[in-house]
Design brief:
Blueprint (H helix, E strand, L loop, with lengths): L1 E3 L5 E3 L1 E7 L8 E7 L1 H14 L19 H18 L3 H4 L2 H7 L16 H20 L3 H21 L18 H13 L6 H11 L10 H7 L1
Antiparallel strand pairs: 1-2, 3-4
Helix pairs in contact: 5-6
Pfam families: PX
Protein name: PX domain-containing protein
GO molecular function, one term: phosphatidylinositol binding
Length: 229
């Protein structure tokens, strides 16, 4: 189906029918959601950051011309449907917040209580993915890019380990976790996300106070220095 923005710009919408099987005290239910290609693309980027194996899945590339032609939409629909089915074959991806939010009719909020808190791993991966996606747009999927992807994932893991205080690379990849420890890992993730983080500017302010002896209450420069910081 085709949607239209306020400025008259048209875009394709893909209808996804989701069926949840019945379980213990859980009835079967079916619902439908509509998603744009840009939302599929964002999901793919986020999943690639967490699950390196997602890079091996067939995902339709961006195209700026003839995006509303019937033949093009049909081919893209088939590819996106096959992509979603491939994701559902991986239990760790099925449990991920990214996929559940994508298939949900309502927004799924993250566990972090502070909305301004920046996830260090997400920050690093966004930079890497922006470069990687740009190379794929011009060069396509070639062996060199696969090697760069492996190297890039190693760099991301190393950088994140430095920022998070020496966490191992495997602990950052949910796909590498044993299913029996998934619940425990989720609890640890929730505890980490809800933990209060000290503002990054505090050490800088403390340095100013010690350097200029501003910790004394009678210093007239104290208030002005803190305001500048």
């Amino acid at each position: 189906m085709v949607g239209r923005e306020e400025d008259g710009h048209e875009f394709a919408l893909y209808v996804i029918e989701v069926r949840r099987q019945a379980g213990d005290q859980i009835p079967a239910v079916t619902w439908a959601v509509t998603r744009r290609y840009s939302q599929f693309h964002e999901l793919h980027k986020r999943l690639k950051a967490r699950f390196p194996s997602v890079r091996e899945l067939d995902f339709p590339r961006r195209q700026t011309l003839f995006t509303l032609q019937k033949d093009f939409l049909q081919k893209r629909r088939v590819t996106l449907e096959r992509y979603l089915k491939s994701l559902l074959l991986v239990p760790a991806i099925c449990r991920s917040r990214e996929l559940r939010a994508f298939l949900s009719q309502s927004a799924i909020a993250s566990n972090g209580s502070n909305g301004t808190q920046v996830d260090a791993k997400d920050f690093v991966t966004r930079i890497y993915n922006s470069v990687s996606d740009g190379m794929e747009e011009f060069l396509g999927n070639i062996p060199v890019l696969d090697q760069l992807s492996v190297a890039g994932q190693n760099l991301i893991s190393a950088a994140t380990s430095q920022i998070s205080g020496g966490a191992s690379a495997e602990s950052l990849d949910p796909a590498a976790q044993d299913p029996s420890t998934a619940a425990e890992a989720e609890a640890e993730l929730n505890a980490y996300e809800t933990k209060e983080v000290e503002p990054f500017v505090k050490p800088i302010a403390d340095l100013f106070l010690e350097t200029f002896e501003l910790s004394k209450g009678n210093s007239w420069l104290r208030g002005r220095t803190v305001v500048v910081v």
